[in-house]
Amino acid sequence: MDNMLKFMKLVGQLKRVPRTGWVYRNVKHPESVSDHMYRMSVMALTIQDSSINKERCMKLAVVHDLAECIVGDIAPADNVSKAEKHRREKEAMMHITGLLSEGLKKELYELWEEYETQSSPEAKLVKEFDQLEMILQAHEYEELEGRPGRLQEFFSSTEGKFHHPEVLQLVRSLNEERAQQMAAVRQPNSENNTDQMSGPGPS
Whole-model pTM? Predict the structure, then answer.
């Protein structure tokens, strides 16, 4: 088989690799890794900060989870050390990029390494996109299930990790919308509890 065809088929596996965090939380029809990377790429496309290389951010977003087409989506709950996770993903990236011409092999591997080491402003911003996309997806699952607040642990895990002004603005908007939805659910419950405590009115 042609090596570029092998590469494209490997990349296609990402459409069928579910995001592990959602699987562990019993989310119905969880997104795939490629779903996650696509919206990250759109986030990179729409960034307005002129000091940031937008094209590089898009490339980093597309490449950063590429190894998962071989190793799968390793989540914190899997109890795999960071060093072991990096080793597995590095080995996978060497295999994947080994199917490409020398120039492409070097470009894709270096993009992956740049993200892993967080060695550029673009890599740091794309890491924020990674976290932002996760909590946005968590919020959407809460909406779809009609259970605001159910996936709070994903939000809690990102506290203090956002720094870029444009990302912070999106996070604020998301948190405000989510807080309103959670308050709307609590309010009827509070009224029901009050009615039960007061008992029947005078006849």
Answer: 0.89
